[in-house]
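Field notebook, page 173. I keep forgetting to write these up properly, so this time I am using the form the group agreed on. The chain and the ligand, zinc ion, are recorded exactly as supplied. Prediction of the bound pose follows.
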Amino acid sequence: MFAKDWGHNAVAQPSHHEVIAEFIPTSADIDSPWAWDTITDDSKLPKNSIVAARWIRKPEQRKPQQKVAHAIFAFTDRHIANRAIREGMVISQKLVSVRREEKDPQRCMKCQQYGHIAKECKAATDICGRCDQTHPTQTCTASPEAFYCAVCKTKGHTAADRACPTLLRRIRE
Ligand SMILES: [Zn+2]
Ligand SMILES: [Zn+2]
Ligand SMILES: [Zn+2]
C-alpha cells in the first residue's frame, strides 16, 4: 500500500513539501487516502493535496497512556504546506498546530552529542548511539530492550530516534 511504502523512502522525494503536525490524538486515522480526504475537508485545504502521512514514532513504540503524537504530512504544493502551517490542520475534530519540517541538527557519530561532527570530535572513545556502552554504534548488538540514548542519557530510545526529546527540542529552538 502506498502510504506504507512511503515510510521508508519518501524522505528522498524532493517535490513533496513536508510539515509536522503536533499533538494529534493518537486515535486519529492518518494512514489512508480516505483519512486524508477527511483531513483536507475538515482543514479546508484543497482535495488530494496530501500525498503521504506518517507518525513520527510508530504506534507500537508509544506508551499505552499516550493520548497525542506528532506526525509528518507531505503536501503536493508548497503554498498548501504554508497554509497548513499558518492556519493549522483539523485532525480527528481537533485543530492542531503545524510547523515546517526542519533539517536535523548535526550530531556527532562518535560521541553522539549535537553541535559537531565525528571528524572534529574530541572524545577519547566511541560512545554507542544504541546502548550505554563505549563501542562504535555499527558494532552494537544490543536488543531494543537495552536501547539507551547517549544524548538524553535515558533508556528507551536510541540517539538516532526521530522522537528523541533532545532532538525535538533542538529542532524547535
Ligand atoms: Zn563528538
Ligand atoms: Zn551499543
Ligand atoms: Zn534522546
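OBSERVATIONS:
- The longest helix spans residues 33-42.
- The pocket of zinc ion (ligand 3) is lined by residues 149, 151-152, 157, 164-166 (CB under 6 Å).
FOLLOW-UP: compare against the apo run.
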